[in-house]
Amino acid sequence: MSDEDDLEDFEADQDDFEKEDDEKETEEGEDYRKEGEDLSEDWMPNSLTEDLMKEGLSLLCKTGNGLAHAYVKLEVKDRDLTDIYLLRSYVHLRYVDVSENHLTDLSPLNYLTHLLWLKADGNRLRSARLDELPYLQIASFAYNQITDTEGISHPRLGSLDLKGNRIRMVTGLDPQKLNSLHTLELRRNQLDSTLGINLPKLKNLFLAQNMLKRVEGLENLSNLTTLHLRDNQIETLSGFSREMKSLQYLNLRGNMVTDLGELSKLRDLPKLRALVLLENPCTDESDYRQEALVQMAHLERLDKDFYEEEERAEAEEIRQRMKEDQEHEAEPDHEEDLDQSTN
Length: 343
Prior knowledge:
This protein is of the alpha/beta class.
């Protein structure tokens, strides 16, 4: 597959993501927020039972040496559950969905050492802490009451979803213990800093709808391809570095970037192809699109629109004039040197 094909696939993926971001983000948040409105209520204890297990179990697979069989998938969504103690006995489970209940404790899952996939969205969890689960690859704890990122250390975890929680600071994410993590979702939290996300294998980072004022501590994310920072309070574009050599898509929509000169700080991103700056004050400037392309010759798309060849040619002329002006300014003043030597 050619580089052009790769880029087309990448752009298609980002278009799909933006469309989903615009159309579904609000609906999803409202659904869980309605459930969240009842978090202060006292729920009657309601334990997971054998009958509910029978209803929710599926996917019969071989276990152990291949001579025995067990159901490995469980779905018990929206059952008003307050505890899942019974799961301690179902050690062969690999896929578990306990979303939309009233759970405050997931510790019974520590016994499921073959667990591959976990979804616990829309509960009453205050922590995502679990013992190390050696095969866990996908984990979602969206729309709970989680306040920190401690206790998450699963060596094969590839995707971690913590959106819609109450996390103020990222701590405890050890790159040595999370060396497979490629996607981290932290949208809709209370983050005021991007520090603590030192995960070199990370490819996709979603930090939209927090309280961020700047980008910091992400300089060494050399594998990062997608960075989503929509709807924060970012004013300056400092914090990006040449080490972020894989970054292709950067969404800064709905921030507070006023000065077009800030775009020059993105010049060191060699693979940046798509930049979204809608709903920033700088987009009101008449030469906004042109200035972005002058600063970043490799940019393919700004906001929703691809650059035309005419725009590229114009930007290249401006860059050449700027280069000539700089060279002229750097030349020594020969007349002044002659006067000085005569005196």
